[in-house]
Structure to design on (93 residues):
């Protein structure tokens, strides 16, 4: 499994891993209303093979511990909701 497997097209700027019933996942989606982001609902991954999914994420960045999990199109870890919100404010300047 690689990030390129999730992106739908080249115009998408962010890859957002979320799960159902997650307030911060819903909030981060609001931050990307006007941006091209690809959303991956992780409920299936967490139910079917939680250990493999967590290991995959930890290989991308060892600091990942909560949802949402946001990466940019260059596979750089942005962070969760708070880090993404700060980044979006900086990019608006």
């Amino acid at each position: 499994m690689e990030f390129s497997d999730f992106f739908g097209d080249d115009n998408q700027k962010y890859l957002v891993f979320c799960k159902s019933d997650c307030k911060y996942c819903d909030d981060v989606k609001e931050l990307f209303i006007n941006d091209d982001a690809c959303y991956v609902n992780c409920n299936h991954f967490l139910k079917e093979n939680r250990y493999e999914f967590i290991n995959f994420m930890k290989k991308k960045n060892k600091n990942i511990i909560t949802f949402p999990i946001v990466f940019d199109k260059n596979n750089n870890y942005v962070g969760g909701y708070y880090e993404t919100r700060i980044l979006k404010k900086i990019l608006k300047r």
